[in-house]
């Protein structure tokens, strides 16, 4: 199972949010490239890079930072955060992102997802961002009536195989992962699932790893790495 460090970018800095709330932000570094290199030096083969300005505002002000990370860190990068136009999607892939994550567009525009999958195949993943049993979008600030299982089934029919599944209410809280949400997505047909949200310890990673035979391929770890409750090298040795 892959252990994937998160590098969340807001106004050019590495940050973590609590429950996705912009007013609950902790800044960890003003040198995102150095942070990315730190995780790669620690053994990470993948990085999960998020443009929070893109997610909240659609401004993509962190794109140049993401491009520097991709060019210099030597890891495979999945890129997320406000990918809502063909131009933005093309730019992310042209910059070297191995995988691009669609969130809002997956909820709102199946034609966009279909065209993206038809053109880019497995380079397209979909975010299952959920709170209280429903999918949220627009930087996690807009609620929908769609359940995680419904979204998985609908985009699986379009050819999507890889999903990043996050319990928004746990993200950045170190409260542990929502295994029931992961199981819901897997039972709905997710072929390759990456867990996210609330991971705080090696025990949490081990619990997620029990779902590996059912389709879990990785876990995104954010605050636990930045706060030191998980050591990256130890985690990779233990579950990677």
Written overview of the protein:
It contains 11 helices and 12 strands. It is α/β, with parallel strands linked by helices and 240 residues long. Strands 1-4-5-6-7-10-11-12 form an 8-stranded parallel beta barrel, surrounded by 8 helices. The longest helix has 11 residues, at 63-73. The model has no long low-confidence stretch (mean pLDDT 93).
Give the SSE layout.
Layout: E1 2-10, E2 13-18, E3 21-29, H1 32-41, E4 46-51, H2 52-57, H3 63-73, E5 76-80, H4 86-94, E6 99-102, H5 104-108, H6 110-120, E7 124-131, E8 134-137, E9 142-143, H7 148-156, E10 162-167, H8 179-187, E11 192-196, H9 202-209, E12 216-221, H10 223-227, H11 232-239
Parallel strand pairs: 1-4, 1-12, 4-5, 5-6, 6-7, 7-10, 10-11, 11-12
Antiparallel strand pairs: 1-2, 2-3, 7-8, 8-9
Helix pairs in contact: 1-3, 9-11
Q: What's the short story on this structure?
A:
By secondary structure, the chain is an alpha/beta fold.
Keywords for this structure?
globular; 11 helices; alpha/beta; single chain; 240 residues; 8-stranded parallel barrel
What is the share of helical residues? 25-40%
SSE string, helix = H, strand = E? EEEHEHHEHEHHEEEHEHEHEHH
Give the overall pLDDT as a whole number. 93
Q: Decide which structural class fits the backbone.
A: alpha/beta
Radius of gyration: 16 Å
């Amino acid at each position: 199972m892959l252990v994937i460090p998160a590098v969340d970018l807001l106004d050019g800095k590495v940050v973590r949010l609590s429950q996705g709330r912009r007013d609950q932000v902790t800044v960890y570094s003003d040198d995102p490239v150095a942070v990315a290199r730190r995780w790669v030096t620690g053994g990470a083969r993948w990085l999960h890079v998020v443009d929070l300005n893109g997610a909240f505002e659609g401004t993509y002000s962190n794109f140049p930072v993401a491009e520097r990370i991709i060019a210099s860190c030597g890891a495979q990068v999945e890129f997320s955060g406000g990918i809502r136009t063909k131009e933005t999607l093309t730019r992310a892939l042209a910059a070297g992102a191995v995988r691009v994550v669609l969130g809002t567009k997956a909820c709102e525009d199946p034609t966009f997802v279909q065209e993206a999958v038809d053109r880019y195949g497995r380079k397209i993943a979909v975010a299952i961002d959920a709170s209280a049993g429903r999918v949220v979008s627009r930087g996690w600030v807009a609620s929908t009536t769609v359940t995680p299982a419904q979204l998985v089934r609908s985009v699986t029919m379009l050819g999507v195989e890889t999903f990043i599944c996050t319990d928004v209410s746990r993200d950045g809280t170190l409260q542990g992962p929502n295994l029931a949400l992961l199981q819901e997505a897997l039972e709905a047909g997710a072929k390759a699932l990456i867990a996210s949200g609330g991971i705080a310890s090696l025990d949490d990673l081990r619990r997620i790893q029990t779902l590996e035979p059912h389709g879990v391929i990785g876990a995104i770890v954010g605050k636990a790495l930045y706060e030191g409750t998980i050591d990256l090298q130890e985690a990779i040795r233990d579950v990677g």
